[in-house]
Design brief:
The structure holds 2 protein chains of 2 kinds. By secondary structure, chain A is of the alpha+beta class. Chain A has helices spanning 26-42, 68-81, 102-110, 122-129, 135-143, 247-259, 273-278, 280-287, and strands at residues 7-11, 15-19, 47-52, 56-61, 88-99, 147-152, 159-163, 188-192, 195-198, 208-213, 239-244, 266-271. Chain B folds into 2 domains: 2-174, no CATH class; 179-315, Cyclophilin-like (Cyclophilin), CATH 2.40.100.10. In chain B, a hairpin with a 3-residue loop joins strand 17 (251-255) and strand 18 (259-263). Chain B contains 5 helices and 22 strands. The chains are: A alpha+beta, B alpha+beta.
Chain lengths: 291, 327
């Protein structure tokens, strides 16, 4: 593991900020998640929460128990003791998606004037700017690429997703809207830059809209059995596998989600970051459902 | 019980410390935007300082009491009236069945707090009674109060005669103004600005815009000079774009080319791609919550230690020592 030290800074009087990189690199995200886990395992008195993001994290502390400078010293020790990236026990989760669905299409139509070219559905715009000859070949490529949850947040449970097994420059990318929409349906799947996101609640947004998934990622009322423990479904490190479904399948799955009979397809998996980084494409194909 | 006869702009059930521990899942702490005032309102009526009370923003609701209660009003002066006559602030008093509490002109501040002896009885969600409206959790059905809502109250901690006429000592009552100074710890991604840009930020008179909700406070003023750089891969094309990172509660960001700073209060979004210039110390968020459209804000650079001292001071303020028996 490269020994470039993290940068530490103060986040007001209740957070410490730890930054591994200012660039988007999966290796740096692995490091962030490894360190976040190591901090939790160290059970340092006074830590309220470790809040990892893409290549940095916030550590919230209780100033009655610990102050920033001693906490930073402890965090540096933990960082120093991390000689290699640890295995990440995580999950591969099936995400049925109806591409160019009626709800996000209606939304894109409403905000046509905010869009870069006015193309509706946005799916066709995204396929085009990424050089796919048609919608179908784009959908095929997307569903063959597992996506890694680099961060959860912005709104409750919203995952920021990055493709596994491809180099940065090979990632599917799209510009954000020229002007953000004032609303987006929940469960909309969007692309902005190289990141996919799923809108967890009806919210403003500027990502290109690709489709809508049947999996809620946030259940405030905790009604569905998979949300019994927690209103949020996803954690950093979760791997999402897109599955293109027809409108009929979508309706059928959604009915099951609503009455609690449909359970999410969740498979446990352990990711070895060092092995992944040696051969991202091969490792993803062999172990993480890439093709 | 209390009945909401008319709702105002935004009245929510809040507590003092909110819901810490879920920010990594995108769920902000929430809790009173002016914790000092909510805490003092609770103390007036004998409640624990972290008990649930009602936060009232700008245009207040109309509330009818369905039973006898002891109540306390603190925070911004939104001209509270009981059955049409001016109601006392910063001192607890009794209300009778069918009494009507209304609000009028916004005289000072932005948010008033109504505490009822026994507290507002709503269920705890993830360890707190605070409303987080965007996430539809906490408070009364996860949303601001609406006309027709009926709120239950808990059991008062003492007999009414012991709770009536308690008042906040005059020197402990926060002062409200139209010119605010908020103390900020500069850092995190302040490197996207030049020294001149930071200096502009710390010296300008920032106008509080009309966007002043619990998710974001926006300010208008000069443009901040940014460092010329190529934004990193995945960040976006504006000079203030960074690879998405966590946003501390209280953090300040500018958007686009260094304009319109936005401060994230207690219902903050937990992360995003705009550089954090710094983070306002926790207790000064109380004053942010009392600033309103048209006010002027000045950001003053302070050390983390000053934030700790201010917090300890507020903890001391929010004790029985700030209360005296009136008449």
């Amino acid at each position: 593991m490269a020994h470039r030290s993290a940068r530490y800074d103060y986040g007001g009087d209740r957070y410490v900020f730890v930054e591994f990189s200012i660039d988007m690199e999966l290796a740096e995200n692995f490091k962030t998640l490894s360190m976040a886990e190591a901090i939790k395992q160290a059970h340092i008195p006074g830590i309220v929460e470790v809040i990892p993001s893409i290549c940095s994290m916030l550590v919230e502390y209780d100033r009655a128990s610990i102050h920033a400078d001693p906490l930073i010293r402890r965090l540096r020790e933990i960082e120093g003791s991390m000689t290699q990236l640890t295995e990440i026990p995580t999950r591969i989760i099936d995400f049925p998606i109806l591409f160019a669905d009626p709800w996000t299409t209606e939304c894109a139509e409403t905000f046509k004037s905010h869009h870069n070219t006015g193309q509706v559905p946005n799916l066709d715009f995204v396929a085009e700017v990424n050089g796919y000859k048609d919608r179908e070949s784009f959908i095929h490529a997307l569903c063959a690429t597992p996506y890694w949850t680099v961060m959860v947040g912005f709104t409750p449970g919203l995952p920021w997703l990055y493709p596994l097994g491809v180099r940065n420059e090979e990632a599917i990318q799209a510009p954000k809207y020229n002007r953000p929409r004032t609303w987006t349906p929940d469960r909309a799947v969007g692309l902005g830059g190289a990141f996919l996101a799923i809108y967890s609640v009806r919210n403003p947004g500027g990502y290109q809209l690709l489709g809508r998934t049947t999996n809620p990622i946030y259940d405030a009322r905790q009604r569905h059995p998979d949300f019994k423990e927690n209103p949020v479904l996803l954690k950093p490190g979760d791997i999402l596998k897109w599955r293109s479904v027809t409108r009929e399948e979508y309706d059928q799955i959604w009915a099951g989600v609503e009455d609690g009979t449909y359970r999410f397809g969740i498979k446990p998996v352990t990711v070895e970051p060092e092995a992944y980084l040696r051969d991202p494409r091969g490792y993803t194909a062999a172990n993480l459902g890439g093709s | 019980m209390l009945e909401v006869v008319q709702h105002g702009i935004e009245a929510t059930v809040q507590d003092l410390y909110g819901r810490p521990g879920y920010y990594s899942q995108g769920i902000p702490p929430s809790g009173a935007q002016d914790g000092t005032s909510l805490g003092l309102a609770n103390l007036l009526v004998g409640n624990d300082k972290n008990e649930a009370a009602i936060e009232i923003t700008l245009l207040g609701p109309q509330i009818r009491f369905r039973d006898e209660h002891t109540i306390g009003l603190t925070g911004g002066d939104l001209s509270p009236k009981l059955n049409g006559s001016p109601a006392t602030m910063w001192e607890s008093f009794a209300v009778r069945k069918d009494d009507l509490l209304t609000f009028g002109r916004i005289e000072k501040g932005c948010r008033a707090y109504l505490a009822v002896a026994g507290g507002i009885d709503v269920p705890e969600v993830l360890g707190s009674k605070a409303t987080y409206a965007r996430g539809e959790i906490g408070g009364h059905e996860g949303r601001p109060l609406q006309k027709g809502d009926v709120l239950a109250t808990g059991k008062p901690k003492a007999a009414a005669e012991d709770l009536i006429g308690r008042r906040v000592k005059p020197d402990r009552i926060p002062r409200y103004t139209n010119r605010w100074e908020q103390r900020i710890v500069v850092g995190i991604e302040s490197y996207v600005y030049t020294d001149t840009g930071i200096k502009t930020f710390l010296t300008a008179d920032w106008q509080v815009s009309s966007k002043i909700d619990r998710v974001g406070y926006r300010y208008t003023g000069p443009q901040l000079e940014c460092v010329k750089r190529t934004p990193p891969f995945g960040a976006g094309s504006d000079p203030t774009n960074v690879v998405d990172s966590g946003y501390p509660v209280g953090s300040v960001h500018t958007t686009g080319p260094g304009v319109e700073p936005i401060l994230l209060p207690n219902d903050a979004v937990s992360g995003g791609g705009f550089a954090t210039i710094g983070t306002v110390i926790t207790v000064d968020l109380d004053r942010v919550g009392q600033s309103k459209t048209g006010d002027v804000t000045h950001f003053k650079s302070v050390s983390v230690e000053e934030g700790y001292r201010a917090w300890e001071e507020r903890e001391r303020l929010l004790t029985e020592s700030s209360i005296e028996q009136g008449r």
